[in-house]
Design brief:
The complex is a heterodimer of chains A (376) and B (303).
Chain A (H helix, E strand, L loop, with lengths): L2 E8 L9 E8 L6 H11 L19 E4 L2 E4 L5 H8 L4 E4 L6 E3 L2 E2 L2 H10 L26 H4 L6 H4 L2 H5 L6 H11 L7 H10 L12 H5 L6 H15 L8 H15 L4 H10 L9 H9 L1 H9 L5 H5 L6 H15 L7 H4 L10 H10 L11
Parallel strand pairs in A: 1-5
Antiparallel strand pairs in A: 1-2, 3-4, 3-5, 6-7
Helix pairs in contact in A: 3-7, 7-10, 8-10, 11-12, 12-13
Chain B lengths: L1 E5 L9 H13 L3 E4 L10 H5 L1 H20 L4 E4 L2 H16 L1 H11 L12 E3 H9 L1 H7 L8 E4 L23 H8 L3 E2 L18 H17 L4 E4 L2 H9 L1 H8 L7 E3 H8 L17 H7 L2 H6 L1
Parallel strand pairs in B: 1-2, 1-3, 3-4, 5-6, 5-7, 7-8
Helix pairs in contact in B: 1-12, 3-4, 3-5, 4-5, 6-7, 9-11
Chain lengths: 376, 303
């Protein structure tokens, strides 16, 4: 039987002692999970190892930990794979981040994760009284939320959220993905109210720093960051919510500057993000205040010749023909945009085993006539 | 080697020293840059946030223009901006994965007589140095090894995550290339907590405090790890780490003075170019430690 060494981070806050690492030799086949390894160490060597687990089949979401520094489900990580990543070192197992440790590998999900889930009103708010029997909605109208419905609430994305690391009040990836589950649900009657709330909150949808950590962390392919981008699209473009965080203004300014110049004109983007999407945006008091607070950087940038006044006043621009081509693309795409979701349709390519890509597409909507599915 | 070169917007806007230093370094590495000067902004994720198809179509146009250069002898498309690389990889993933969608986007491009064919090779300058030129060849061209220069890598999010989209695997450990390159140039790699974290730039207009707390914290970690400078393959990270450093200092309440170099600047330094030729005088944080090093006995002995 192959042997592996697990290096487990131990910590019991009540004792007042500092956290430390303990090594445990385990003997299990490489295809067994890291969770099996932890449980063997607990059974045979140290009954005080704290780990939370239940289903052992990657569906209950209890055993989220960090393995070799990356968030994962302990039951869903093979020992041989973990050892390969660890190289010559032992496999390290530590509690998830951004949440207080209760004991060893157990973190306080109530204090952070569940509180944030509650923050987004995680239940259906129908417009009128519920129908006597079930709701009847067109099946394709639910496809859009299948990805966020795949969440098992393990907290892996919360663990590695870099915005939450500096702003603990950030609503965060798991809760915002949950919010999209209702914003994208045709039965819910409060889409606008939900979006308004999440857009105006300084720790809401516009506090996500786009770092992709949650996409990398999620063991279920939920891609929370993509759901946050969908919330922004719904709030800004569909519901035209002009939030106090400059989120929508920034997006508008970016999109129209690229339409007008073909390239990004940064010196114009900043004032417009604060003051509004027009040439006059820079004269808005909010733009002025921002300018004042950025003075230390602006003065230095001018001193060093990084930015010249000439360049700040006149943005770089594509040639006439190319700019026209870009604007034609805008006209095409701004009409009825086609939003391809690879989670739903899968990948059509040669490398995958035959049928694999199709299977995913089938699960999501094979019963739909092609013309009715947005992802066909 | 000839490449279809996409400099991006920021390298021609607020970080002109990046575009400039790339132009200086390219001939030393036998890279011929054919600039894609007809292409539009990649959207940096913001256009995709507004309208995914719009971002995909704009980038498909860039890819089609690059493929025209490939027909004229360029070997692949090259980026010098992590954000462009990541945003374009995301669009390319969708375009390559679904032929119906690709046709739909190509229909939009057809008005201009352009067409994108699946499977463009689009690499960041960092990847190109390791995978196409090879670190041994780079090492052979080093004139002034970065002996005793302590360099902290700052990768930026878009070039390391999500790892499957960016082609990071055992055979291509692209999340270690900066480390490998610094070593190949003769420098000392400084590992610190923030090397794979986010600079905070995308929320600078939305939550400036949270944005610069991120930049300030990583810079502080690098100071504590006794780095002489950081190097980044992303000009947007450079904006938050360098241009905004004076404001970040106020927000995290400590003095930082951490110079941040663009990737081609670090390479150029080892290939014998002077800090000034590489535009280091244009940085907000004076790269004093780097300039001191370049004029020190260690560097001159090596040269």
């Amino acid at each position: 039987m192959p042997e592996y060494t697990l290096r487990i981070r131990r910590y019991t806050p009540e004792t007042g002692e500092a956290a430390h690492w303990d090594d445990f030799m385990i003997d299990l086949d490489g295809h067994r999970s890291v969770l099996d390894g932890i449980l063997q160490a607990r059974d045979r060597q140290d009954g005080t190892i704290g780990i939370r687990c239940s289903c052992r089949a990657a569906i209950c979401g209890s055993c989220g930990v960090r393995i070799n520094g990356s968030p994962a489900l302990a039951c869903h990580t093979h020992l041989d794979k973990a050892a390969e990543v660890a190289g010559d070192e032992p496999i390290t197992v530590e509690p998830m981040g951004n949440m207080p440790v209760l004991k060893d590998l157990i973190v306080d999900m109530d204090a952070v994760h569940w509180k944030k889930i509650q923050r987004v009103t995680p239940w259906l708010l129908p417009e009128a009284d519920p129908p006597e029997r079930e709701y009847v909605v067109p099946p394709e109208s639910m496809i859009d939320v299948t990805q966020s419905m795949a969440c098992i609430q393990c907290g892996a994305c919360v663990s590695d959220c870099l915005s939450m690391e500096v702003d603990p009040e950030f609503i965060g990836p798991a809760a915002l993905a949950k919010a999209y589950r209702f914003v994208g649900d045709p039965r819910d009657g409060e889409h606008f109210e939900r979006l308004k709330d999440l857009a105006e909150d300084p720790h809401g949808i516009y506090d996500c720093t786009h770092c992709f950590n949650c996409i990398e962390a999620c063991p279920k392919g939920v891609a929370p960051m993509s759901q946050i981008m969908r919330l922004r699209r719904a709030a800004g473009t569909e519901h035209e919510i002009n939030d106090r965080n400059n989120g929508h203004r920034h997006e508008r300014a970016f999109v129209s500057l690229v339409r007008d110049y073909g390239l990004l004109y940064e010196a114009e983007l900043l004032p417009r993000s604060y003051g509004g999407d027009s040439w006059f945006g820079k004269f808005h008091p909010a733009a002025g205040m921002e300018l004042a607070s950025s003075l230390p950087s602006i003065v230095k940038a001018l001193q060093r010749g990084k930015v010249t006044p000439m360049k700040a006043l006149k943005g770089h621009k594509l040639g006439k023909d190319d700019l026209q081509a870009v604007q034609r693309i805008y006209e095409h795409a701004e009409g009825d945009a086609y939003e391809l979701n690879l989670y739903v349709v899968g990948y059509e390519d040669e490398e995958e085993p035959p049928g694999d890509g199709d299977a995913q597409a089938d699960a999501a909507g094979s019963h739909l006539p092609e013309e009715r599915s947005p992802n066909r | 080697m000839k490449v279809a070169y996409w400099p991006g917007c920021v390298s021609r806007g607020f970080t002109p020293e990046l575009h400039g230093s790339m132009a200086k370094v390219a001939p030393l590495l036998d890279i011929e840059l054919v600039e894609l000067d007809r292409a539009a902004c990649c959207g940096a994720g913001v256009i995709a946030e507004h309208n995914q198809e719009l971002a995909d179509a704009l980038n498909a146009r860039t890819f089609a223009l690059a493929q025209m250069e490939l027909e004229r002898g360029a070997e692949l498309m090259m980026n010098i901006c992590s954000t462009c690389q990541g945003a374009q990889s995301e669009c390319q993933e969708r375009l390559d994965a679904n032929s119906e969608y690709r046709e739909h986007v190509n229909e939009t491009l057809s008005a201009e007589g352009l067409r994108y064919e699946k499977g463009l090779s689009n690499k960041h300058f960092l990847w190109l140095m390791v995978e196409e030129i090879g670190l041994d060849a780079v090492r052979a061209k080093v004139k002034r090894p970065l002996t005793d220069l302590r360099v902290g890598p700052f990768y930026g999010c878009y070039i390391v995550r999500p790892s499957d989209r960016l082609g990071i695997d055992r055979a291509h450990p692209r999340d270690t290339y900066l480390h490998q390159l610094i070593t190949a140039l003769g420098g000392t790699v400084v590992d610190y907590a923030g090397q794979y974290k986010c600079c905070g730039f995308p929320i600078i207009t939305m939550n400036k405090e949270a944005s610069l707390k991120q930049a300030g914290r990583h810079l502080g970690d690098a100071v504590d790890a006794e780095a002489d400078c950081l190097v980044t393959p992303c000009p947007l990270c450079h904006l938050n780490l360098d241009l905004q450093q004076p404001v970040a200092e106020r927000i995290v309440g400590r003095q930082l003075d951490m110079p941040v170099l663009h990737l081609p600047q670090l390479v150029g330094l080892a290939l014998g170019l002077s800090p000034k030729e590489l535009g280091m005088n244009k940085h907000v944080v004076r790269p004093t430690s780097v300039i001191d090093w370049s004029t020190s006995v260690v560097a001159s002995v090596a040269a």
